[in-house]
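Input.
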Amino acid sequence: MKQTKLLSFLIALLIVCACKNDSKSQEKEDKKAEKKEEYQKIKDPNCIAPADWFTIVDGTRKTPAPDEGPTSVFANNETVTNCDFHQWSWQKFLWLTNETKGQPMFLNDLKQVTSHGQKLERKNGIVLTDTAQASGASDILKTPKFASGTPPSTTVYYAIFMNDLLYDAMIKYAPIAKENPDAVKDITYPIGALELKTSWIDVKALPDASSYFVTDGEINGIKTKVALLGIHVVGVVENHPEFIWATFEHESLAPDYDWSKATPTSDAPITSTTNYPFFNKEDTATVKNITSGNGIYTNIFSVYKYGTPVEIKSIDNKNVQVFMKSSQNGSQNFNNIRIINKSVKEQLSGIWNNYFYNGSIWIDTAGYVGTKAQAALLDSLSVSSGGLHNADTTALARGSVAAYNITMETYVQVGFHSDGIYTTKVGDLVNCFLCHSTSHGKQNSPLNLSHVYNGYLDSLNGLSKTETKLKHIKLVRERSQQNKQQSK
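Output.
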């Protein structure tokens, strides 16, 4: 009997222990599942393009305009997501390229203006005279010189467009700011204000222009056909007076930097087995080809895909590409853009399917309620904390913190230095907010985020285009140096 009781006790003890072990094992599995779920949200989020963006009516696409006001996803700063901004960017681009009167809507409905805010009459198509990039007066992009001479080396030109909301605000507030700068320090652009910067080239510079949007243009007074290379789509939505800065470009302009051949202490040489509009396969490029102030380099390349910075680290004696630690989760941002680009590609037809979204940037305004508080935030970030563009881990820049367009920010992809791509740190990063700040000399206002507004205001104060350009470049380089020093 005693043996029977002892045996029963031992069996019961084993069952209890087994249950405890099963409980612990299940707890571990639950934690693993939670971690996997969190990882999957970052790795493969549901950031897709809705089918109604691609509705065809009478043979043309009719993408609806995105909701941007108090009923939009942007109205709730606690629930708005990284994906929401990327979806806005694509939808806005598609809406702007809806065909009206045989042209994309932006050519029919928006004003073309000079860098000083003067309206341009487009009698013979897009008016093209400006060539210098924002990073420097000598930073001019040209196609390579090929041995055959065909196609010829040709310069890239830029054109600016804006809608009535932005234009009317500029005309209204710049004269006020001229007399009393403090009177506009809290003024923000209205929701829906929109500005585009576009890059174009004479179609004869392209060996095959069939995949480009081509239209009538006038280069320095000479009528010609021009092809669209890239476009910045910049718009104000609820809670974001700083604008969302989105960028798109043609998918085959230049090669990508080969990170698989880079090391933590050296750059990979940039070569190509095929010719691109901006790269001759007979040549080899280095970081100098994409560095401001080095003269006109024609063989250029793209460094950070989707404007998401990466670097090479030595891990377990292996060179590994990792996302740079910054103010934005790089994996989340990169994969959201990758997924929505794929989603659009699968649903979009026609010429615009040859352009891709290379990212966007904005500021986290959570906790700042109302335009006055948000304006004060933008001003404080612009004049301190390393600048509005600061991408340090504790900063408020979100999205593609190294955002660029290969045809418009060609020479500042890794900052203003040419020491090497491998030396680039978070404090070197340049994005739209380096150039576009609320601070413009002694003028502090969210209105200054638009360069056209700056130019118009400067023209009222008697400055020429050249003087405005030099003033702007000086401010940009000072901000870049300040951020680099504070990040050390």
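Confidence is low (pLDDT under 50) at residues 1-7, 9-25, 28-44.
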